[in-house]
Amino acid sequence: MEESYIVVMVMTASQEEAEKISQRLLEEKLIACANIFGPVSWLFRWAGQIERAEEYALLMKSRLNLFENLAAAVKALHSYEVPEILALPILKGSTAYMDWVEECLR
């Protein structure tokens, strides 16, 4: 793969929020697709306290050079003050699938 492809992980407060973010990023061709999982339990530290929440995990396939625009769009749509937006490298993928991902992106 000549391009650097990524999986972007974002946690959301609801399935509706995950769908709203996914829809916008698909329309802008910043992602090829999105998987939504949940609810999942989450334990974290916030404002000096240990908190617990149920969230929805959003996994999106994209290209590394689109990450900054993708992250800005997520921040604009997300309900959290500090949303989790992580890019993980795709080291390998089937040729047919990665060709499809590329066709879907700008």
List strands and helices in order, with pairings.
Layout: E1 5-12, H1 15-27, E2 33-46, E3 49-63, H2 67-77, E4 85-89, H3 95-104
Antiparallel strand pairs: 1-3, 1-4, 2-3
Helix pairs in contact: 1-2
Summary, kept brief:
Helices cover 32% and strands 40% of the residues. The chain has 106 residues and is α+β, with helices and mostly antiparallel strands.
Structure description:
It is a single chain. The protein is of the alpha+beta class and 106 residues long. The chain has one domain: Alpha-Beta Plaits (2-Layer Sandwich), CATH 3.30.70.120. 32% of the residues lie in helices and 40% in strands. The protein is built from three helices and four strands, in the order E-H-E-E-H-E-H. A four-stranded antiparallel β-sheet has the order 2-3-1-4. Helix 1 packs across helix 2 (67-77). The model has no long low-confidence stretch (mean pLDDT 95).
By oligomeric state, this entry counts as single chain
Cα-atom Rg, whole angstroms?
A: 14 Å
- The end-to-end distance, rounded to whole angstroms, is 17 Å
Question: How much of the polypeptide forms β-strand, as a percent range?
Answer: 35-45%
CATH architecture: 2-Layer Sandwich
Stretches where pLDDT is under 50 for at least 5 consecutive residues are none
Here the CATH topology equals Alpha-Beta Plaits
Class of secondary structure makeup = alpha+beta
Number of helices: 3
Overall number of domains: 1
Q: Main sheet, how many strands, which sense, barrel?
A: 4 strands, antiparallel
What are the defining features of this structure?
single chain, 106 residues, alpha+beta, Alpha-Beta Plaits, 4-stranded antiparallel β-sheet, 3 helices, 32% helix, 40% strand, elongated
